[in-house]
Amino acid sequence: MPHKPIRIAVLHFAHETVTFLANDTTLEDFTYLGSPARGEALLAHDPKSYMGGFVKVAREYEGVELVGIESPLWPRTGTGSGWITTEAYETFLGRMIAGLKAEGPFDGVYLSLHGAMGVRGVPRPEADIARRVRGVVGRKAFIVGTFDPHGNEDEQFLAEADMAFTVKYFPHYDSHLQGQRAARMLVRAIRGDYKPATVTMKVPIITPTVLQWTGASPWMDMVQRALVWEAREPDVYVNVFFGFPFADVPDVGLTFQVMTNGDAALARKVADDMASWAWRRREALLNTAKVYPIPEGVRLAKQATARGEVPVVLADHSDRSGYATWILKEVIEQDLSDVLIATIADARAIDTLKVKGVKADGSFWVSVGFGRGNVVVISRYLTQILYPEELRGPGFTVDQFKVIAIKSRVHFRRGFDDSGFAKTILLVEPADPYLGTVRLDGLPYKNVDLKKFYPYGDVSFP
Ligand SMILES: [Zn+2]
């Protein structure tokens, strides 16, 4: 007997909000050519990531119709903006809910999320989105979300939605794969072949993102443990939210979600295993990358250059604003040569150049030469460089530099480390705690009590 046709609504609302930044994320930031997007434009907007994986697999099934509901894409600010305004959130979510009502009914909903969205007045935005979507589609429909491992989530999301699939690696290599899984499991659930029984478990450990690289132990081991559970038990899925500590929201910290096919006891057992493993390894989870003060990092870069261990990557992991100039200052003071600094965000400089009639395509980078063979690139927004190939300007190529200073924590390892490109990698941050610091107790939290988390308080678990 042929399967009944299935209608799935597809929605997207994602941001990684650094709530300590002064510039709110506004309606205007989400509104640009191509955003919001609906229909085929929404379904096709990110073919190599979650959305692409979801659409690819959903369309492998006969009789599955995908309906792209008007949704905002990522804001123009990328990750370089603070609290999403209530106006922006309510406007877009309101339109998404109206679209769902207008185009329904639906058998299932795919929510393409991130998990670290920070909205003024909405403590748990992803759970709130799921709750309001549920209000339209009803209890009989299935709701699945995809997430970034930096999501801050607690049990509320899976209390409203049925399933979640979270990227396992940092750098985030498997977003397309998690999108594929979300599609397959959503179709299975709608057809009655998978009955999600889930457990969400929080572990009171909070970690700065720069320490969460899954290319080395113990973070690699934690991912491996989740993969082993998925391999040994059919229909078990394990999500690990490393958490995003630069959002002042109540559900920060390490979180596990486990999904099984109707087996609540198994879900509990796997969650207990993951959580107790993480707690046993808590000290190691906090002692991974070495982070140098910027003057020392620049000095070490100079020494590595003298030894010929180039190119050197100097990564200021802490600059979540994009406009920090500490490395530039040290490069000048210590008189380094052949350095590329990419980028320093300076909206005013870029806007002035545009007003004065300077024309450019796309991202509008301005490169300025200084000192002995140095170049600094100025951009409109915070820019995280992932691959050396991105560093191409009028008048320079990446191979002419011995030191490349970028703003990234772990994602740059795709193109600079995993590829074998860099011979020396130095992570740096300024002396005083800055937005993305490893010293979380230097941040002005209002909604988080750090004393309730290892390593900042005398915490016991379970
Ligand atoms: Zn992430």
Description:
The mean pLDDT is 96. The strands form five sheets. The protein has a seven-stranded mixed beta sheet. Strands 3-1-5-6-7 form a five-stranded parallel beta sheet, with helices on both faces. The protein has helices at 27-30, 39-43, 50-58, 86-103, 125-137, 156-160, 175-190, 219-232, 264-280, 282-286, 294-306, 326-333, 347-355, 413-416, and strands at 6-12, 24-25, 64-68, 82-84, 108-112, 142-147, 163-166, 196-203, 237-241, 254-261, 291-293, 312-316, 339-345, 366-370, 374-379, 392-393, 396-397, 403-406, 424-429. The protein contains 14 helices and 19 strands. α3 packs parallel to α7 (175-190), α4 packs parallel to α5 (125-137) and α8 runs antiparallel to α9 (264-280). It has 462 residues and is an alpha/beta fold. It binds zinc ion. Residues 148-150, 172 line the site of zinc ion.
